[in-house]
């Protein structure tokens, strides 16, 4: 797929900006805080309807305004598609495809596929499990847009069940075993769907990432990736997962009531990375952790391409300088002209001369491409 044009209106520090992408690689160069990452964030929003940097639309809309718009034209194998996302504060989002407003936002997902790689991703290995869950969830949304709905259903049940447990703890509500059993069943049903999908995608991603990891680090390093749900060791078959879920809820019944919150379910799951049987999170060297994150990103590119049938976009936010020459070369060799890539940087000095000549270079200054 190829992103031909992007138009931003009152988005972050952009008042109004049109960008035409004229080469498979676009380098956005500029000083700090000029709007380079904001531009990549706009593409991320079109791809997943989420930003990894903002949870509220209010922060995305330019200060002092109440509506923000991101338009894009994307060339897909089946033709050209015009997309538009409007953010309102206050108010809800609206999405349009080829000038037609969609009733369900979920139908917007999957039209732009993108792999995002920023220096923050180095925290993917070292950081809290929440980061890893957010990472796998956003990959799943791109590969199986229906997953956005599945996850949302689980989150609704979880919120309501948490509210009930909190009220029970504070004595505001009397325990009604039938009502709690109903929430338990819904949590197990929706939660099992989340667990099984996360497990399935990681089983597909793991061998690709393993191959990359060995190719960058050498064959002596064996990477394993495993989804570790807190309720059961294996995420198949579905009936077994649901039963294990209910059993675990039973086991943790007293603890849940003491804490007044849900302690069982995919909102507490972990994704384990091990290198030669040693947990990469705690024992991996910085170099190993970097290789691992790069391998994951390269694997994401390949997996999305395999599933979708077209190469996704690659968004590299200030990350090349974080990689040493070997890892940079591995990434560059993989990208070539196959994956359309948008790269932000504060200086062009770090780039290979050949890269610079074959790239479109745009200077970003104070929310404008100059
Ligand atoms: N809602 C908003 N309205 C107006 N300006 C905003 C809004 N949100 C962020 N900004 C501005 O956007 C700028 C940050 O831009 P961005 O995060 O893209 O930086 P960058 O160019 O990628 O720099 P760095 O190299 O530091 O990451 C800041 O000047 C910030 O004040």
UniProtKB/TrEMBL annotation:
Assigned keywords, A-Z: ATP-binding, Cytoplasm, DNA damage, DNA repair, DNA replication, DNA-binding, Nucleotide-binding, SOS response
GO MF entry, a single one: single-stranded DNA binding
Parts of the chain that traverse the membrane: none
Keyword Kinase carried by entry: no
Subcellular location: Cytoplasm
Gene Ontology terms describing biological process: DNA replication; DNA synthesis involved in DNA repair; double-strand break repair; SOS response
Assigned GO CC terms: cytoplasm
Listed InterPro entries: DNA-binding_RecF, DNA-binding_RecF_CS, P-loop_NTPase, RecF/RecN/SMC_N, RecF_2
Pfam family, one: SMC_N
Residues noted as binding ATP in the record, renumbered to the chain: 30-37
Gene3D superfamilies per UniProt: P-loop containing nucleotide triphosphate hydrolases, RecF/RecN/SMC, N-terminal domain
Ranges for domain RecF/RecN/SMC N-terminal: 2-348
Domain of life assignment: Bacteria
CDD domains membership: ABC_RecF
Keyword field contains Nucleotide-binding: yes
Family as reported in the entry's similarity comment: Belongs to the RecF family.
UniProt xrefs under PANTHER family: DNA REPLICATION AND REPAIR PROTEIN RECF
Function: The RecF protein is involved in DNA metabolism; it is required for DNA replication and normal SOS inducibility. RecF binds preferentially to single-stranded, linear DNA. It also seems to bind ATP.
The name this protein goes by in its record: DNA replication and repair protein RecF
Organism field: Merismopedia glauca CCAP 1448/3
Organism taxonomic ancestry: Bacteria, Bacillati, Cyanobacteriota, Cyanophyceae, Synechococcales
Gene that this polypeptide is encoded by: recF
